[in-house]
Amino acid sequence: MAEKNNFVHGIAYGKLYLAGEYAILEDYSKALITSVDKKIIAFVEPANEITIFDTLNKISVGLYEKNDNFKLIQEFLIFLQQYTQSKKTFALTIYNELHGEDKKYGLGSSGAVLVAIAKAMLNFEKIKFDDITIFKLVTLFNLTHNISGSMGDVAASLTKGITYYQKFNSSFVKELIKNNSITEIINADWDGLIIKNIVPKASVNIFARWTGECVDTKEHVKLWKENKDNFKEEYSKFVSKSNSLVADLAVNLSDGNTSQTLENFRQLRDNLHYLESFSNIPMETIAMKKYIDTYPAGKQSGSGSGDIVLGFDKSDAQFNLILNLEKL
Ligand code: PMV
Ligand code: MG
After folding, report:
1. 211 lines ligand 1 (CB under 6 A)
2. Which of helix, strand or coil describes residue 41?
3. Distance (Å, rounded) from C-alpha 321 to C-alpha 132?
4. Per-residue pLDDT reduced to its tens digit, 254-300
5. Ligand 2 centroid vs 304 CA: distance in angstroms?
6. Straight-line distance from the first to the last Cα atom of the chain, in angstroms, rounded to the nearest whole number
7. 25 in contact with ligand 1, CB cutoff 6 A
8. Percentages (nearest 5) of helix, strand, coil residues in the chain
9. 138 and 75 in contact (C-beta within 8 Å)?
10. 106 in contact with ligand 1, CB cutoff 6 A
11. What is the distance in A from the centroid of ligand 1 to the CA of 156?
């Protein structure tokens, strides 16, 4: 893509959960989430008025123009104006590779779009930033706009490669929000939050395949929450098992322990089946089970019963992620 001199941009990557889904909704839990070779790029250039164009909707709207497809982005831009204290006008263009024509793959588009916009806008305002600042900005916006979830998708979209994400303490951040300005909240250390990159040395191929089925993660998270009080012991068993497997997997991936890596993935899948057994959150469709059975190890990625399924196998050399977006 040719970039003119007066443009600045921000990039965010599509994501896939490797380990830690559901458990990551809890404070201090851990997940491993990888980027994929598809991204969102936001471009910003000076203009006489604020406009937003994206390649999904293929239309341009103004900041205050009523349009349901752009509502969240409009609100996010207003939130960023409060943070940057800027009244500059600009044209924002969003190139989104995370959706096909009328197809949703579950690659984390809603988190990534805000990450790309935040990076582009701070570049436009010539404000220096790091990944944690972008994470906090997007997360703060989400928390104050009724968008729930672990924010693992936001963490993973910041950089290429595998992200080790430890969830922040929600009540700590809620308290911060009550008593402080945006800048104070962003500048504070968030209790629990860890975002770091893992360099995989295990010789593993990951075959990620689109199932062709769309999942509404929100519905799954609702079921997770609804059952929590009735199955306290089971939930806590599931969460601690997930966290210890994620910690193990992070070590085995980094140290190049290929067989143990595959074993960790099998155990993570078993643990998700355990969660399903008492919560009734549907995890694997029949097609997903069949796909997983053709590999030495495999599991769902994320909320399950659709989106993308993962097969794992030993590779001849280094770690590889092969994403196939043809319908299973
Ligand atoms: O379906 P995905 O890839 O968006 O993953 C959802 C992961 C959950 O843990 C189920 C929810 C969340 O917000 O982390
Ligand atoms: Mg999903």
Report:
1. no
2. strand
3. 25
4. 999 999 999 999 999 999 999 999 999 999 999 999 999 999 999 99
5. 7
6. 31
7. yes
8. 40, 25, 35
9. no
10. yes
11. 12
